[in-house]
Design goal:
The protein is mainly β and about 375 residues long. It contains three helices and 29 strands. It has a single domain, classed as Methylamine Dehydrogenase, Chain H, CATH 2.130.10.10. Helices cover about 10% and strands about 40% of the residues.
């Protein structure tokens, strides 16, 4: 049953911190909770602690493996100053600031022939923008819900997990937001994708589950076999199943629309371990994954065979990935403020700097205008790249 509904932004009481302070506060809280989250009994869901944010998990794994590369996620002012000295503006990039200054845009999706829709993690809003740059924002009914990724459903509505709100939000094209509460407390829903069965499938990073929600809001949860897997991003595969990354284990998971889960180790590459983050279905019918351990792009067939291609940039800090209008794979490089592209044969074709020094590119999608649209979590902008 839906628990809350809203049709407009409306007045909401929010205790906002500046972006840097908020990021540091959340990170400190997540680190403090990590030990208790790891030791809690998965069956004791009633008192499940709040889930740890994905960039904190990735940072801990990089440190555990003695990597000296920068951690992904929200940047400190020191790293922003470093980027200001090294970043140049690319002539093919236009940046559009979201109306709300603390928006922290993350997930983004495109409606065929229409607008782009995106989440505002920092402001707990869902935004939409026309290809000419006109913005509209809609507040989630739950304050400080933390909407993450977003997907277009077969029903024509937009769907977005709320990481801190522990809901799945349904947004109509007119901006009516309805929330559906998850059965598992503090499940930490993150990624979402439309399945071949007409339902939406999402990850529960904190609970180690994959969830399914019907267009009318009925939710079913399936447990990922490997404990502490931290399933993060999810996509529909060419085989009709859903494929997802397991951030903590380096595994790529597959779930059928009947709920059968199988797992395949990701490519270990030069690092000897895998840190899979983003995932998309490529134009070649394979799965393509950003791997921040070896700083490469992994190709996985639907039979589970993996090949890894280097992006030739050890500080890339890889995150979201999508298929571009040119048939190449396009991916966000948080570590050096860039967006890169690669052919399906593994050749890096472009590495485009973003104008805003503190951009922190997060997710990438192809718009109905055949441009690449990028969420910039750090700057609060949407970047538009003409390939």
């Amino acid at each position: 049953m839906p628990v809350l509904e809203t049709t407009e932004k409306g007045p909401q009481v929010k205790h906002r911190l500046p972006l840097l302070a908020r990021a540091l506060t959340i990170t400190a809280l997540a680190l403090a909770l990590c030990a208790s989250a790891a030791s809690s009994d998965a069956s004791a869901t009633k008192h499940r602690p709040r889930p740890v944010l994905p960039w904190v998990v990735a940072c801990q794994l990089l440190h555990r493996h003695h990597s000296h590369r920068p951690c992904p996620g929200p940047r400190t002012e020191k790293s922003a100053q470093t980027l200001r000295r090294t970043t140049r503006q690319a002539p093919t990039v236009t940046e559009l600031p979201a109306p709300s200054p603390g928006s922290s845009p993350m997930g983004i999706t495109s409606v065929p022939g229409g607008n782009l829709w995106f989440t505002e993690f920092g402001e707990s809003q869902i935004g939409t923008v026309t290809t000419s740059g006109t913005f509209t924002e809609y507040a989630t009914p739950t304050v400080n819900a933390g909407p993450t990724e977003i997907a277009l459903g077969a029903d024509g509505n937009l769907w977005a997990p709320e990481y801190f709100g522990n809901n799945i939000a349904r947004i109509t094209p007119a901006g009516v937001v309805t929330e559906f509460a998850l059965p598992t407390p503090n499940a930490g829903p993150w990624g979402i994708a439309a399945g071949s069965d007409g339902n939406l499938w999402f990850t529960e990073a904190g609970a180690g589950n994959i969830g399914m929600i019907t267009p009318d809001g009925v939710i079913t949860e399936y447990t990922v076999p490997t404990a502490n897997s931290y399933p993060l991003n999810i996509t529909a595969g060419s085989d009709g199943a859903l494929w997802f990354t397991e951030l903590s284990t380096g595994i790529i998971g597959r779930i059928t629309t009947s709920g059968a889960v199988t797992e395949t180790p990701g490519a270990t590459g030069t690092a000897g371990w895998s840190l899979p983050v983003g995932i998309t279905s490529g134009p070649d019918g394979n799965l393509w994954i950003t791997d921040d351990a070896s700083v490469g792009i992994d190709q996985m067939t639907t039979a589970g065979a993996s090949t890894q291609f280097s992006v030739n940039d050890p500080s890339a800090g890889l995150w979201g990935i999508t298929t571009g209008p040119d048939g190449n794979l396009w991916y966000a490089q948080q570590g050096d403020n860039m967006v890169g592209s690669m052919t399906t044969t593994g050749t890096v074709t472009q590495a485009i700097f973003l104008p805003a020094a503190y951009a922190s590119p997060w997710d990438v999608v192809t718009g109905s205008d055949n441009n690449l649209w990028v969420t910039e979590d750090g700057s609060g902008n949407l970047a538009v790249i003409t390939p």
